[in-house]
Amino acid sequence: xxxxxxxxxxxxxxxxxxxxxxxxxxxxxxxxxxxxxxxxxxxxxxxxxxxxxxxxxxxxxxxxxxxxxxxxxxxxxxxxxxxxxxxxxxxxxxxxxxxxxxxxxxxxxxxxxxxxxxxxxxxxxxxxxxxxxxxxxxxxxxxxxxxxxxxxxxxxxxxxxxxxxxxxxxxxxxxxxxxxxxxxxxxxxxxxxxxxxxxxxxxxxxxxxxxxxxxxxxxxxxxxxxxxxxxxxxxxxxxxxxxxxxxxxxxxxxxxxxxxxxxxxxxxxxxxxxxxxxxxxxxxxxxxxxxxxxxxxxxxxxxxxxxxxxxxxxxxxxxxxxxxxxxxxxxxxxxxxxxxxxxxxxxxxxxxxxxxxxxxxxxxxxxxxxxxxxxxxxxxxxxxxxxxxxx
Length: 391
Description:
InterPro entries: AcuC, HDACs, His_deacetylse_dom, His_deacetylse_dom_sf, Ureohydrolase_dom_sf. Pathway: Ketone degradation; acetoin degradation. One of its GO terms (molecular function) is histone deacetylase activity. This protein is of the alpha/beta class and about 400 residues long. It has a single domain, classed as 3-Layer(aba) Sandwich (Arginase, Chain A), CATH 3.40.800. Helix content is about 35%, strand content about 10%. The chain is built from 11 helices and 6 strands. Helix 8 (about 270-290) links the parallel strand 5 (about 250-255) and strand 6. The chain starts with 20 loop residues before the first helix and ends in a 12-residue tail after the last helix.
């Protein structure tokens, strides 16, 4: 696990939804529950990303603009998506962003080495998941694209096939764009439809560039989709495309803004539904990628009731430790003292989601099933998957 307090320096200001307190509260809750003290857990400080690696993911002139903006903002910053409402300039912007990217680089390197060579089977950068950043501009609260840094590093180290699965409520557009023409990288994104949510992309027909058809997989979900519908979509698509692609490493982005209480989006998952997604991805990492799993955070803007609980459950899943339902009183008292809010009593929402799988057929009049079928029709043939699988 890669974490230190320097990662909270990624701070767009007190009015911005991407509040660093969400990461601080998450790690504090994980610590209170004893997750960071488990014998199979090592917590390493976040290093700064290798500048040459960063320059292979982002245009050098963009990196230079980020450096300048963080010390002496210039009028042309807007050309690079900096100084906007989504991406306000803050002091030390490059340094803070480079540490998040560095943590994902280190996580990728550790997983590629593996435990037999002093690395790890799973590695986590909970502050990462900045999936909207493009090669030459910032976007959607994201300055440097740390998942793309991790994937690029894995390819450099010798990986021939890397799968990226993104469960953030927003389309993982930056990662998709950066590997659009690369058949070595499968990008899978389950998100609220771009018809109703930023960034307005991620439709089924976006399947990858020439020579890489089928390696971009997009499931555009209707607003209001809850646990059962989301899990139905996941299981109708994700295991099949991973089985066909045969990745050597799985990289995942776990934005928890799909929760019903998130203020910026319109899906309706519970923490329990999100936890089932974590469990499924863990199992798929072992089934298809030899257990090699790089895990990042992502979006999530309900900073007390959702993010700390969801990502603590994520870390518990990665580590393999069951947790009691009750949240420690010390954590709840800290929340009340620091931000004046009443914290939840329990880790979950008390839901028991069920998976209504695809084997029973589909309803052609249902918007969710239309979305699932559109994705299957778009990518399954390109990946050699029988369109009628599960039916």
